[in-house]
């Protein structure tokens, strides 16, 4: 469904992604972990071309997307993305946040868009917040709204960039729960996270990223119990100690 | 009375011209990292414009406009009032462009990214998401620019326009008594500025009420 073929990216002469080839099949839940600054966000952002790779190819649903002439807006519509900092639109109500893209892009008439929004809000138990502004929501609520804002467009894949990293600890669980439900419904997901529990229980495959390279790519059991890469062993010993 | 009218007229016209030029230039400066040559050239022109008009005194710009630039292109007969409007408008454009640009840049860049990942185009995101937030930052600055204009236009008598300042000077000249007219003049400016400041506060408060951030 998504494939990168040898993508590289530098910022100011510093190589951040080094020749990365990764394939994500439909229905997979790929979790990306790795130390800070290893290029996880940059890689994720290359998938929907928020960052354009200097070299290599990005493919989505059978077409190469980093090629002139491709309507990137149409591609992005099918790839939901959730950010660490929520990025809700503060000047619009929750309802407007949810319906803006649907109506602006002419995908759904206003009433139908609102029905979709109400349905999604109900699903995450925030129906009563429909006409509030984002500033009235807690961090966890904001992130859940951000998730359904992406879902409103009925995407084929969801990208998550550390969706729980800026949340107070007591709100992490409510967001992970929504993500788990989404996973159970069969959504294809690519998730950058430090939540090892989530990686273990939801991930179908885990990638370890370090210094711009994928150093390990394995199913969760193998990834945690029998890591091959030395840097990964070191990384796991650190984060697993932190969990205990 | 003519003096007051001219001061206001020049300030309002200059602000209008400044808004048009300034918004245009800010837009050019904000075209996303394009390597295309025409865009690069345009951006350089904007930079030069801003540097030129911010780097020289407004009186000098006014004098050059009236005695050099317009006669040079064969427009020596333009009424000085119009010249003042144009000169202050061009000057204001340089400042307004920086304000508009600053206002837009002060909106978190995650907002643009969020809009784009929803499949909105750059222009749609600008219009529906960035500008409505930027405007709250820009309006107070534009208000200050208007206040600055009211005061700065007190130099237009250099090209024989009768504004508030000139009018009071004439009263002084006629009576050989300057203390009262000049104190009155200062009071006039003060009342104008305070009045506009008050209106600005009202507008800002209304905007803040709709800003539920
Ligand atoms: N727009 C940018 N301009 C310049 N440098 C950047 C930019 N984006 C990322 N970088 C740099 O690229 C490197 C990788 O960044 P990236 O955000 O992909 O790492 P990360 O693995 O997501 O880290 P973290 O866990 O801290 O989020 C970092 O050194 C970062 O400073
Ligand atoms: Mg990151």
What does this structure look like?
The complex is a heterodimer of chains A (244) and B (213). Chain A has 9 helices and 10 strands. Chain A is an alpha/beta fold and 244 residues long. Chain B is mainly alpha-helical. Helices cover 81% and strands 0% of the residues of chain B. Chains A and B meet through helix 2, strand 6 and helix 3 of A and helix 5 and helix 6 of B.
Summarize the helices and strands and which ones pair or pack.
The complex is a heterodimer of chains A (244) and B (213).
Chain A: E1 2-11, E2 14-24, E3 29-33, H1 40-47, E4 55-60, E5 63-64, H2 72-77, E6 79-82, H3 94-104, H4 110-123, H5 139-151, E7 157-161, H6 169-184, E8 188-192, H7 196-202, E9 205-210, E10 213-218, H8 220-225, H9 230-243
Helix pairs in contact in A: 3-4, 3-5, 5-6
Chain B: H1 2-30, H2 37-55, H3 58-72, H4 80-105, H5 109-117, H6 122-152, H7 164-175, H8 179-209
Helix pairs in contact in B: 1-4, 1-6, 1-7, 2-4, 3-4, 4-6, 5-6, 6-8, 7-8
The protein's oligomeric status is heterodimer
Q: How would a textbook summarize the main sheet of chain B?
A: none
User: What is the largest interface, and how many residues per chain?
Assistant: A-B, 27 and 21 residues
Q: Kindly state the mean pLDDT of chain A as a whole number?
A: 95
Strand order of the largest sheet of chain A: 6-7-8-3-9-10
Content-based structural category of chain A: alpha/beta
Count helical runs of chain B: 8
Gap between N and C termini of chain B = 45 Å
Report the C-alpha radius of gyration of chain B, rounded: 20 Å
> Using only CA atoms, what is the Rg of chain A?
18 Å
Number of helices of chain A: 9
- Terminal Cα span of chain A: 36 Å
Secondary structure: number of strands of chain A: 10
How many domains of chain B? 1
Order of helices and strands of chain A: EEEHEEHEHHHEHEHEEHH
- The top-level CATH class of chain B is Mainly Alpha
Helix content percent band of chain B: over 70%
Bound molecules: adenosine-5'-triphosphate, magnesium ion
How can the largest sheet of chain A be summarized? 6 strands, mixed
Q: Low-confidence parts of chain B, pLDDT < 50 over ≥5 residues?
A: none
């Amino acid at each position: 469904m998504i494939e990168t073929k040898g993508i590289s990216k530098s910022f100011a002469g510093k190589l951040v992604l080094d020749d990365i080839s990764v394939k994500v099949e439909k229905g997979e839940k790929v979790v990306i972990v790795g130390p800070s600054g290893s290029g996880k966000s940059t890689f994720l952002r290359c998938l929907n071309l928020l960052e354009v790779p200097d070299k290599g190819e990005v493919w989505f649903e059978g077409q190469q997307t980093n090629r002139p002439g491709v309507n990137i807006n149409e591609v992005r519509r099918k790839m939901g993305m959730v950010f660490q900092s929520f990025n809700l639109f503060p000047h619009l109500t929750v309802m407007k946040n949810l319906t803006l893209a649907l109506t602006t892009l002419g995908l759904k008439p206003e009433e139908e868009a609102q029905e979709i929004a109400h349905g999604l809000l109900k699903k995450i138990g925030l129906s009563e917040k429909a006409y509030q502004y984002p500033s009235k929501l807690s961090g966890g609520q904001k992130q859940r709204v951000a998730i359904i804002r992406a879902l409103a467009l009925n995407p084929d894949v969801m990208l998550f960039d550390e969706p729980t990293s800026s949340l107070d600890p007591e709100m992490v669980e409510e967001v992970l729960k929504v993500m788990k439900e989404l996973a159970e419904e069969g959504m294809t997901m690519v998730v950058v996270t430090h939540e090892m529990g989530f990686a273990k229980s939801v991930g179908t495959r885990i990638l370890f990223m370090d210094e711009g390279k994928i150093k390990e790519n394995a199913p969760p059991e193998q990834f945690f119990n029998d890591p091959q890469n030395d840097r990964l062993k070191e990384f796991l010993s650190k984060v697993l100690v932190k969990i205990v | 009375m003519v003096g007051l009218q001219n001061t206001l007229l020049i300030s309002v016209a200059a602000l209008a011209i400044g808004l048009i030029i300034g918004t245009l230039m800010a837009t050019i400066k904000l075209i996303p990292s394009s390597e295309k040559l025409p865009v690069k050239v345009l951006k350089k022109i904007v930079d030069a414009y801003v540097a030129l008009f911010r780097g020289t005194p407004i009186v000098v710009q006014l004098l050059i406009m009236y005695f050099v630039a317009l006669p040079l292109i064969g427009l020596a007969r333009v009424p000085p009032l119009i010249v003042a409007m144009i000169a202050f408008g061009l000057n204001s454009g340089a400042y307004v462009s920086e304000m508009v640009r600053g206002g837009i840049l002060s909106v978190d860049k995650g907002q643009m990214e969020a809009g784009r990942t929803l499949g909105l185009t750059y222009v749609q995101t600008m219009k529906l998401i960035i500008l409505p937030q930027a405007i709250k930052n820009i309006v107070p600055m534009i208000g200050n620019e208007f206040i600055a204009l009211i005061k700065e236009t007190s130099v237009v008598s250099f090209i024989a326009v009768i504004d508030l300042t000139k009018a009071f000077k004439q009263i002084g000249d006629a009576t050989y008594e300057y203390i009262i007219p000049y104190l009155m003049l200062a009071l006039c400016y003060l009342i104008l500025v305070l009045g506009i400041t008050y209106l600005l506060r009202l507008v800002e408060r209304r905007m803040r009420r709709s800003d539920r951030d």
